[in-house]
């Protein structure tokens, strides 16, 4: 059974299809829910690990239904999310003579999804992209909403564009091969949705004994987590497609999180781990500024611990340097760093008046 979550947008609506085994039903889902047809060359962009597990089977099923698909396999890891790697997609697009009616399929986690989406946004001024996320983080966050891009040496996702997919295909079965650390990273984004938007999701997470491994969840529990999380992202994006206001709350935990990733050269923290620490920091800032209570912050921290995610900053990190890195964040507005701070479980606000001294003091208290 397929769960469809519509993503209603003014210019290009689409849907998220959640279904076990949906990767092998991709041609049918494309035919039923998109205008895309197999009448032009296409690329499947992936990384070696994901391609080894799922790529050949997806290529075969597409070719059985008339699609002309060629793989484009990129190196795995956030440190390869660069313009240099992006060039490999462009080179493949040129070699395969992709045209305006062509489609890029993003088969992988958030890095592959972001780069493929950006390539689709910029090749021939825009072609179709279909997201087939293979990590929990990508399923509930990166593949939805049309944010695409690559990193600059001075900051994460500074080069990018909004480019909505034509379809997002979520297959829970592929999480079986997801490394445990990456599953925990995705759980950080799930917790985020519970804190900023969906108190029912927060309560569900509180009721579960473990959040650190997929084997601890039943099929129904995992399905509920996916549906709640995807719906939360859709609710926000459909109200603010291009982050003119409300959508900024999706960056909860990301302001400090991105700085942590960058300072560690994407080797110390993965994205979800950095966001987890960022959420703890934002929670402490919210307490200091009177936005929410110690009790709510403790409840958030308990979920982060339950997911076996970090809550502290390594002692070797320069917290003064972290504060300086915040000035390069793409969320800086009028030279002020915007923070997303929670005001209750299920609600958050955009706050611009956060003193640098308070940020520095908070980071110091989290350093171990």
UniProtKB/TrEMBL annotation:
Residue span, 3-dehydroquinate synthase C-terminal domain: 186-332
Enzyme class: lyase
Note describing how the cofactor binds: Binds 1 divalent metal cation per subunit. Can use either Co(2+) or Zn(2+).
Residues annotated for Zn(2+) binding in this entry: 189, 254, 271
3-dehydroquinate synthase N-terminal domain mapped to chain residues: 72-184
InterPro entries registered for this protein in UniProt: Dehydroquinate_synthase, DHQ_synth_AroB, DHQ_synth_fam, DHQS/DOIS_N, DHQS_C
Main location: cytoplasm
GO molecular function, one term: metal ion binding
Entry GO terms, CC: cytoplasm
Protein source organism: Parathermosynechococcus lividus PCC 6715
Enzyme Commission numbers on file: 4.2.3.4
Protein name: 3-dehydroquinate synthase
Cofactor(s) listed: Zn(2+); Co(2+); NAD(+)
Alphabetized UniProt keyword annotations: Amino-acid biosynthesis, Aromatic amino acid biosynthesis, Cobalt, Cytoplasm, Lyase, Metal-binding, NAD, Nucleotide-binding, Zinc
Organism ancestry: Bacteria, Bacillati, Cyanobacteriota, Cyanophyceae, Acaryochloridales
Reactions that this protein is recorded to catalyse: 7-phospho-2-dehydro-3-deoxy-D-arabino-heptonate = 3-dehydroquinate + phosphate
Coiled-coil ranges (or none): none
Pfam families hit by this protein: DHQ_synthase, DHQS_C
């Amino acid at each position: 059974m397929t769960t469809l979550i519509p993503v209603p947008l003014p210019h290009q609506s689409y849907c998220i299809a959640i279904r076990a085994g949906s990767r092998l039903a991709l041609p049918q889902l494309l035919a039923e829910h998109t205008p895309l047809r197999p009448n032009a060359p296409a690329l499947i962009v992936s990384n070696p690990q994901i391609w080894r597990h799922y790529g050949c089977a997806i290529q075969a099923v597409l070719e059985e239904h008339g699609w002309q698909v060629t793989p484009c396999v990129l190196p795995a890891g956030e440190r390869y999310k660069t313009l240099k790697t992006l060039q490999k997609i462009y080179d493949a697009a040129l070699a395969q003579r992709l045209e305006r009616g062509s489609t890029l399929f993003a088969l992988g986690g958030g890095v592959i999804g972001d780069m493929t989406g950006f390539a689709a946004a910029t090749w021939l001024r825009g072609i179709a992209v279909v997201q087939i996320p293979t990590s929990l983080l990508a399923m509930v966050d990166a593949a939805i909403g049309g944010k695409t891009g690559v990193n600059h040496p001075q900051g994460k996702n500074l080069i990018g564009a909004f480019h909505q997919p034509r379809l997002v295909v979520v297959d829970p079965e592929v999480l079986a091969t997801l490394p445990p650390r990456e599953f925990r990273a995705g759980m950080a984004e799930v917790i985020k949705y519970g804190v900023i938007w969906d108190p029912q999701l927060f309560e569900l997470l509180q009721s579960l004994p473990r959040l650190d491994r997929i084997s601890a969840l039943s099929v129904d529990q995992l399905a509920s987590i996916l549906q709640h999380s995807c719906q939360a992202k859709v609710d926000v994006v459909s109200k603010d497609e291009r982050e003119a206001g409300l959508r900024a709350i999706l960056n909860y935990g990301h302001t400090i999180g991105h700085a942590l990733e960058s300072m560690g050269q994407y080797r110390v923290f993965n994205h979800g781990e950095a966001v987890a620490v960022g959420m703890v920091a934002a929670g402490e800032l919210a307490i200091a500024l009177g936005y929410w209570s110690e009790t709510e912050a403790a409840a958030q921290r308990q979920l982060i611990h339950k997911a076996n995610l970090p809550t502290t900053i390594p002692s070797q990190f320069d917290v003064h340097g972290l504060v300086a890195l915040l000035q390069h964040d793409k969320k800086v507005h009028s030279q002020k760093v915007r923070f997303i701070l929670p005001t209750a479980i299920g609600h958050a606000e955009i706050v611009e008046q956060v003193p640098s001294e308070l940020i520095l003091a908070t980071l110091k208290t989290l350093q171990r």
